[in-house]
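Protocol step 4 of 5: obtain the predicted structure for the target chain.
Materials: sequence only (see below). No template structures provided, no constraints applied. The aim of this step is simply to have a reference model before the mutagenesis design in step 5. Sequence pasted as it appears in the construct record:
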Amino acid sequence: MPVLETITVLRHAQYQREVIDVTGTHWRRSTRSGGGECVEAAALSPASVAIRDSKDTLGDFPRLSIPANDWTGLITTIKAWNLDL
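Step 4 output (structure tokens):
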């Protein structure tokens, strides 16, 4: 089940704090975000996705960076469960 695999990866991940230059990065958010209560995502590289709060876009680094395959798994799971997030 994709959710369990994703959770397992996140529990065993090594967390490191680093500053990532996101100058010129194209941030995207859901077209359903409406009033801005959403997250924004940006591809940092083919292997990494940055995620931030759409209400807190200031600063030079994303709040969270995850492997692209974990991001794909998260989106796939949300769509499969028909979650309105």
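Step 4 remarks: The chain has a mean pLDDT of 72. The radius of gyration is 13 Å.
Proceed to step 5.
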